[in-house]
Amino acid sequence: MSNNFRSVSVVGTGIVKFGKHRELTVPELARPAVMNALREAQVSQKDIQAIYSGAAISGWMAGQRVARETGMSGVPIINCENACSSSATAFREAWIAVACGMADYVLVLGVEQLTRLGGGTLPLDQEDIEVSNGMVMPGLYAMRAQRYMNDFGATVEDLASVAVKARRHGSLNPDAQICTETTVEEVLGSRRIADPLTLLQCCPTGDGAAALVLCPTDRAPKHNSKPIKVLGSHLASGKYIPGFRDMTIPEITVRCSRELYEETGVGPEDLDVVECHDAFTIAELLYYEALGLCERGDAPKLLHDGTTSLGGRVPVNPSGGLLSKGHPVGASGAAQMVEIVRQLQGRCGQRQVADAKIGLTHVTGGGTYGFDHGACAIHLFGR
User: Fold this and answer.
1) 236 assigned to some structural domain
2) Which of 42, 117, 127, 142 sits between 20 and 30 A of 32, alpha carbons compared?
3) pLDDT digits (tens, 9 = 90+) for 349-359
4) Are strands 77-80 and 50-54 parallel, antiparallel or unpaired?
5) Backbone angles phi, psi at 201, to 5 degrees
């Protein structure tokens, strides 16, 4: 971003434990996350000048409904729907508003209640030619896994090891939906969903909310003793590629990360901690490569040598990721940011990444015909 724009920092975070919250309304689900973020930032409802809300399938005007519940109605509210990238897109819009001087204090909200759907895979657009022929997200990622195994010699044990790592990290996160560890044998022995993916290799559906308060960096010390700067934000949309496309290359993530690295001068070698979109085990391996953490085909090596585990050079998904923390679609991007901000502040207890200075969040959204994904949002944070 141009030097004419203000630096922006995160001064407050809030999150609710992901899980099944059928008894709550969407505003009731979001309220604790919002109020905790405001409290942490030491700002009141009247200080918030705009709300940017991300939700994919939780009904119209989620932001207004939450504002009503939290005493902030009347301010400009922007609702963002961008599939799994919804709240990350909301964060980007909020960041731009503060950087441009349109507002000094803004709230970012991500919320989703998937249990209202009654279970099963997420409903997709039947006008999509691939969806109308039976394509669902587990099937799409299963095909990616099969192709990656064929091209690079990865094994089902490699895939299962991603879930084992996720559950190990998630067992240290009290806000995770699944807080128990597992083994490679248990992962491979769980119910098959789409060959080679088994149940424990697919993220659980559930409900959740996360919130953040942003303000100009020069004001941040008044509100938080450890504010975290937003070093960069990039949003990309998928390129329509009809016909053959290499399913082992997440084109949108490769492009989005490359452009963000160029904009900020930060490279993959500078990252201390990463939260990436591991909706399925194969996804995390593909994103190691797409984000530049290793060369193509080397992702399993990075996993097995401990590089991406707690204690390694660049821990990935210390929160447990989508596989363990859960994936309430519209809330996931904001929840990743809460984790990275708290990691950089040194607040994550047993799952704390030692001396983390720079963190990255990555979320993609919307599998649709002719696209790798519909949207990808990547953010960089630093202390």
Assistant:
1) yes
2) 117
3) 999 999 999 99
4) parallel
5) -100, 5
Cα 261 from Cα 255, distance rounded (Å): 10
Q: By residue range, what is the domain housing residue 160?
A: 129-206+228-382
Q: How many domains does the chain have?
A: 2
- Digit-coded pLDDT (tens) for 256-303: 999 999 999 999 999 999 999 999 999 999 999 999 999 999 999 999
* DSSP per residue, 255-309: HHHHHHHHHHS--GGG-SEEE---SBHHHHHHHHHHTTSS-TT-HHHHHHTTTTS
Strands 106-113 and 192-194: unpaired
Task: State how far the Cα of 351 lies from the Cα of 310, in Å rounded to an integer.
Answer: 7
Do 202 and 141 fall into the same domain? yes
**Same domain as 103, residue 16:** yes
Active-site residues, by number, are: 84
Instruction: Name the pairing type of β-strands 106-113 and 77-80.
Output: unpaired
Are 145 and 202 a contacting pair, CB within 8 Å?
no
